Amino acid sequence: MTEKNEFLYPQKWLSKASTGDRVASELRMQIIAGLIESDAILSENKLAAEFNVSRSPIREALKILAAENLIRLERMGAVVIGLTEKDIEEIYDVRLLIESFVFERLIKIDTSNLVTELSKILEMMKIAIKYKDADEFSLQDVLFHETIIRAINHSYIRMIWDNTKPVMEAFILLSMRSRIEEKYDDFNRILENHELYIEAIKTKKRELMIKSLHQNFDDVQGKVDDLWISQQTLSKGVEKSD
Amino acid sequence: MTEKNEFLYPQKWLSKASTGDRVASELRMQIIAGLIESDAILSENKLAAEFNVSRSPIREALKILAAENLIRLERMGAVVIGLTEKDIEEIYDVRLLIESFVFERLIKIDTSNLVTELSKILEMMKIAIKYKDADEFSLQDVLFHETIIRAINHSYIRMIWDNTKPVMEAFILLSMRSRIEEKYDDFNRILENHELYIEAIKTKKRELMIKSLHQNFDDVQGKVDDLWISQQTLSKGVEKSD
DNA sequence: TCAAGTATACTTGTATACAAGTATTATAAA
DNA sequence: TTTATAATACTTGTATACAAGTATACTTGA
Fold first, then answer.
1. In terms of domains, do B208 and B89 share one?
2. Whether residues A126 and A212 fall in one domain
3. Do B67 and B166 sit in the same domain of this protein?
4. Nearest-CA distance A176 → chain B (Å)
5. Is B125 in the same domain as B220?
6. What is the CATH number for B186?
7. Does the C-beta of A60 come within 7 A of strand C?
């Protein structure tokens, strides 16, 4: 048995989370990072032993991951589905879909407070880059989009966001970590893109928003390659758990 | 304590469901039907006693309902949010959104099998009406849309469906039950509308689909009024659980 | 009557126990 | 060697036990 003292998921983001949430966050990262391979079978008992907790929070975690389509709950054990390139594309389909919807609503309301809020987040992102803090950058990046989505006060759009957020966050986190050192310039492009997004919301120009969203997506396409590479790196020297 | 021998949710739909799923289904119906009022506080222990099960499946059920935004999990007790008219509108926003997306994908693929499948479901719906079986009709109605959505094989669109389906199913169920007796003619309109939808998929004509979707939504607007009326009827003579 | 403080009866989160069912493995027979 | 059967070691689902924390209500003092 291997004692794990290091976590992929930033523990400080889990200040008041339950054990189940913590386990879910960590397993999610391990699955998306490829440390736990697809088709692997997870047993509640083994996981409980591994994380040094009881089966209750493990069950909770598995339910969460199943809802996120990262695993499949079967009779005997939970089968890891993992995150394919197709999944990433699909997540961005959904983001494109809901953010477009949100934008149409934003056009009809006063967005000055939102723009202020977004500007603040953007500045935080700049600081994060300055100090090469990939985690903080990812946090703010996700928060940026969450802030936009929450602005229209739509329970079910927010529900969709809540369901896709964890996977997206984990994915962005891994992607940014692998890029912060080598591909430093990428981040300026991301910043510019977010500035464009704010501008679109401020001026309520649909074309700008579409442009920004698509650029963001194109940017992600690159992230995918990077992540797959980083997965291989991460997987090296890690014993298989079968 | 009141012993409940009758359930709002059709038990035969839960053939291989866990106790937690059963409890969730029943609580969902009671909340949407208004038997459990908004702002009511649900305690795990009380629910466990009421349903004659342990806290484990109750916890599972509450997690499910929280994900559906029907309740809010707080420190002390789960607070019932309930389903407002705004929620119904929002659910249909989402349906409009994802079914439009799905249609764009359907245009690009061979839909002959899908059309056959949908025709079969439509015939089932007709039989259900013939025998005034509101439950069966609702089941097929929901299945109709689920079949369309599943046809494009998109994990994350399906995820959105999975998350909104239970609430929508419960809502449609209650609505149809209240209408099957008095507003019999409504059902023919619904059938025609579904025929239009099939035609849209067959001919891949966008306008037809939009028309059908909007008619469906207008139809739902009427459902809302009916449901609120049926809620008051249902609520009569039911003691409050505070 | 009112205020403060303490005791009590709740709440959830986690751990453990038990039961029912399934896959695997070993054993025995042909 | 192969097949059938039985035993065993797993699996999850549910029930129960325990611990930590919170709100409420009561008691005690003025």
1. yes
2. yes
3. no
4. 23
5. yes
6. 1.20.120.530
7. yes
User: Which run of H or of E encompasses B208?
Assistant: helix B206-235
For the entire predicted model, the pTM comes to 0.87
Is B37 within a domain? yes
Task: With respect to residue A3, please indicate whether it lies within any of the assigned structural domains.
Answer: no
The pLDDT profile of chain A, 242 residues, written as one tens digit per residue, is 344 457 899 998 988 889 999 999 999 999 999 999 999 999 999 999 999 999 999 999 999 999 999 999 998 899 999 999 899 989 988 988 899 899 989 999 999 999 999 999 999 999 999 999 999 999 999 999 999 999 999 999 999 999 999 999 999 999 999 888 877 788 888 999 999 999 999 999 888 888 888 887 776 655 555 555 544 444 433 333 32
- Number of structural domains chain A divides into: 2
Nucleotide nearest to B59 (CA to C1'): C12
For residue B98, give the nearest of B178, B28, B160 by alpha carbon: B160
CATH code for position A21: 1.10.10.10
Which nt sits closest to B45, CA to C1'?
C11
SS3 per-residue string spanning B72-117: EECCCCEEECCCCHHHHHHHHHHHHHHHHHHHHHHCCCCCHHHHHH
Write down which residues 68-97 in B have CB closer than 7 A to strand D: 75-76
Residues A145 and A100 sit within 8 Å (Cβ to Cβ): no
| C-beta separation of B139 from B125 below 8 A | no
User: What Å value separates CA B24 and C1' C10?
Assistant: 24
Which domain, by its residues, includes A184?
Answer: 85-231
Flag if B97 and A94 touch (Cβ within 8 Å). no
CB B74 within 8 A of CB B67: no
Does residue A154 fall inside a structural domain?
yes
